[in-house]
Amino acid sequence: FNHFTLLRTMLFILADGLGIPPDSFWNLHCNLPGMCSEDIQTRDLLRQALYHPPTEEDRAKSNGLWLRAHTDRGSLTFLYSQPVAGLQVFVNGAWKYVRHYPNGILVNLGDAVEFTTGGLLKAALHR
Predict the structure, then answer these.
(1) CA pair distance 70, 19, nearest whole angstrom
(2) pTM for this structure?
(3) Dmax of the chain from CA atoms?
């Protein structure tokens, strides 16, 4: 299992759901349309972050807020579930905590998907 497998699968599912050719979004990630593979340079950004529970001092300094509300600039963001409550999404006018699911992967849609679909699919506002 690797990042490319998950990315390609999710992009194909999105395209299929929109009724467009299945490799449409995948080709946007590649320097050579139709030729994308793990061996070819893509415009993907893969970053890891491990968040540890904050100390009481950290909580007091930040007033419980670590990042301001934002959307991600890329197409998809994969967040591997961690047993640290902190991620919130803006749903129906309110901030909701995202529940931890062991071995779960949360997929956020980013600005690139919202732009590419003309706003049909929305980037996830989160903090």
Answers:
(1) 29
(2) 0.73
(3) 52
